[in-house]
Each structure stands twice: as structure tokens, then as C-alpha cells.
Amino acid sequence: MGICGIKKAFGVLFIALMGAITAHAQEKLFGPGGEEKHTHSGIIFNINAGLDLPMADMAKRFGMSYRLGPSLWYKTKQNWIIGIRTDFIVGGKIKDDSLMINIRDRYLGFNGKTVEMLNVDGNRVGVPFYERGYMAGIQVGKIVKKNKSNPDNGLFILGSTGFIQHRINIFVRDKDVPQLRGEYLKGYDRLTNGWYLGSTVGYSYISSTGLLNFNFAFDGVLGFTKGRREYQFDLGRENTEARTDILLGIKAAWMIPIFKRKEEEIVFE
């Protein structure tokens, strides 16, 4: 399936992940007679972790990656959710085998994790490199299928949009490779950024006993990005082409709800 097919098939994609526990307590949702209480409104702080599979142009450059970061939601009594998210992208596999081809040892091949080259003392050193990036944006959605016994829980759908950036982080520990000092690094790092659309479908659970608050979901990101370096030394050309970057994965979050009681007393979950 080509890039256009992927866009049509997935629209805005999925990433997911599972389980977490909170040490904060929350009010029970049922009274002594077992009657159902109202839904709650308030703030939910999430600590997210996820595993991503890259697709489209992202898959040509990087292998599997991880996303970590916080998000902050406000949930209404009607179970609408609006929030902000920040994810840090971390990976250890680079597939771009032309990386630093003009300065690395041409006889040792390319393993996607390090390159061999000579330092200022004429010694061969291994230079590691990594995928690094981040994304930040807004989220809007709703808990669309509530749990009858606990109306704050259920299947949720979120849409998001914002900014995404990624690059190759080349790590020269002792700064002893003159070809990779200062501004020269920018000629190899493949800096890329742009805007994205995202979607998240999952299940959110806030326990009536306060012992377990979590969500897990499938999450997808469709990035409309562009290379931002005017010239790449190893490619011998500029790096400003438009790209389609896709991440599909699973994620989970540890949730800390801060809800209001019916009497408007604030409850820290």
C-alpha cells in the first residue's frame, strides 16, 4: 500500500498501550444503598508510555520507537474531554544507510546504531546515533460508551492536532571528531518537523475504591512534515522535501484524577 493508500485507510492513526496504578485515593461512586452517583467533572493528569511502529517515510528512516510524556485533560459531567499532550520520541535504530557515508569508515558497513571514523588522534572511534523527537498538541474527545455501574469509565475517542519534530541525534562523547563539531552536525542530523493529525481509541478506568486509575489505547499519528536543513553533506543536496510520517502504536497511562464532589469539594484522587 502506498502513502496515499495509507492516508485513506488510516486517516488519522492509532497508538496504544496498557496498564498503570495510582497511589492516590478517590471518592467512591456509590452510596450506602448502592445507587449510582453522578458523573464527575475535573482535571485528569496522565503519565503516558507507548510503543510505536513507524510507517510511510518514517519507516524508511527509523525503526521501532517509544513515546513518553504527560497529558492533561479536563473532563466535563457529560464526559467530554479537552486537553493538551506532550510526547517525547525515543528510538535506537536508524535505517538511513547513507548517513555520514562521506566521512565514515567505508569498510565496516552500517549497523544502524554506530559508525566508525577517525578522531583527532588518528584512532578509530565508534560514534553512536539515536532517533530523538517530540510532539505537542491539543486533544478533544469523549467517553462514548459509559460503564453503567461507573459513569466516569468507558470507551473513549480522542482527536488531536499539533506540532511534531524528529531528527538523528549524533553523539560524540569527547568532541574529538572534527567532522562532527558544532554546525557540522546540522549537515547530518536530518532535522524534520511539521504539523500532525492524531487519533486515540481506548478504554479509561477510574476505580470506585481509588486503588486503580488507568487508560489504555490504540493511538495513531499522521505527520505532514518537511526536512529543515538547507544542505546535507553526505547526500550532497538540500534536505527540504515534503514527507508523510506515520506512527502507529499502543499506549497506556497512569491517571491522577482531581474531581469535584457534588457539594463542590475538591477531591484529590
How would you characterize this protein structure?
The protein is mainly β and 269 residues long. The protein has one domain: Beta Barrel (Porin), CATH 2.40.160. The protein is built from two helices and twelve strands. The chain has helices at 3-10, 57-61; strands at residues 42-56, 65-75, 80-91, 114-118, 124-147, 150-170, 192-206, 213-227, 229-232, 237-239, 242-260, 266-268. The protein has an eight-stranded antiparallel barrel with strand order 1-2-3-5-6-7-8-11. A hairpin with a 5-residue loop joins β11 (242-260) and β12 (266-268). The radius of gyration is 23 Å and the shape is elongated.
Compile the SSE list and pairings:
Layout lengths: L2 H8 L31 E15 H5 L3 E11 L4 E12 L22 E5 L5 E24 L2 E21 L21 E15 L6 E15 L1 E4 L4 E3 L2 E19 L5 E3 L1
Antiparallel strand pairs: 1-2, 1-11, 2-3, 3-5, 4-5, 5-6, 6-7, 7-8, 8-11, 9-10, 11-12
The N- to C-terminal Cα distance equals 46 Å
Described by strand count, sense and barrel closure, the largest sheet is: 8 strands, antiparallel, barrel
Fraction in helix: under 10%
Instruction: Return the CATH class.
Output: Mainly Beta
Rounded radius of gyration (Å)? 23 Å
- Tally the beta strands: 12
Strand content: over 45%
Under the CATH scheme, the architecture is: Beta Barrel
Instruction: Describe the global form.
Output: elongated
Spatial ordering of strands, largest sheet? 1-2-3-5-6-7-8-11
The number of domains: 1
Global structural class: mainly beta
The pLDDT mean sits at 83
Low-confidence segments, given as residue ranges, are: 9-36, 263-269
